[in-house]
Design a protein that fits this description.
Layout (H helix, E strand, L loop, with lengths): L5 E4 L5 H7 L6 E4 L9 H10 L4 E4 L13 H14 L4 E4 L2 E4 L2 E7 L5 H18 L4 E3 L14 H12 L2 E5 H11 L3 H7 L5 E6 L3 E3 L6 E3 L8 H14 L4 E3 L8 H18 L4
Parallel strand pairs: 1-2, 1-12, 2-3, 3-4, 4-7, 7-8, 8-9, 9-12
Antiparallel strand pairs: 5-6, 10-11
Helix pairs in contact: 1-2, 4-5, 7-8, 8-9
Amino acid sequence: MLAAAVGIGLRSVHVADVIATRPAVAWLEVHAENYMASGGPTLAALERIRESYPVAIHAVGLSLGSADPLDARHLRRLRALVERIQPALVSDHLSWSSLGGRYVNHLLPLPYTDETLHLVCDHVAQAQDALGRRLLVENPSSYLRFRESPIPEPDFLADVVRHTGCGLLCDVNNVYVSACNLGLDPVAYLDALPVDAIEEFHLAGHSVNDADGVPVLIDDHGARVAPEVWALFAQVLARSGPRPTLIEWDANIPELSVLVDEARRADAVMEAHAVAP
């Protein structure tokens, strides 16, 4: 179990600094696919860091929403990493990224239908059985609506939780991005999630693409957390209570001190606004 405190996403450019300076953050999260090896210096560095910090594993390649079966080899490699590192949490996304043996470097959206729900639940259950632990499923960022998607996203996630016993990774920035792009109420979205299933929050920055005079928010994890996302985080904390929270930064990666500063701010927001769950 992770303490209800703030961690940062560990990226390769910061590994040496983390080992040398041991920054004052509560925990670290890594992308699973960067460490799926049987050995080597990258995995050795993670094992060294694991001696000093709790670690969470965030996967991006399970493709839980694909019409294809889960990739058995990928799942075996993820299980080997989980057994080796013994992370506090393991998560992946409500999305798909492979079909017919072809893979794309994107987390693609799903239509929320009964058919999709059954497929996602089967895949989540299979992944949990293979890993021998609870999986957290992260809400995506959205840019377009499907013509046929009758189940609201938070209801869809609640159904996945109810059918599989999985947990939720609530990405607050993704909620804000999707709400702005699709004209949704982000507070109503958060209120519709099963709060007891939320085991982790993600916070990140986004950018705005103003092509043709229509602003579209892009979940690029390339900037500080926006004021609106901080405000939304404070609101959800008042309902959920404190939970493990991560600062993500994947593009235009700054010095490690900037991530640590964002983590300190998240700690302060949590202390000021969270109530006992």
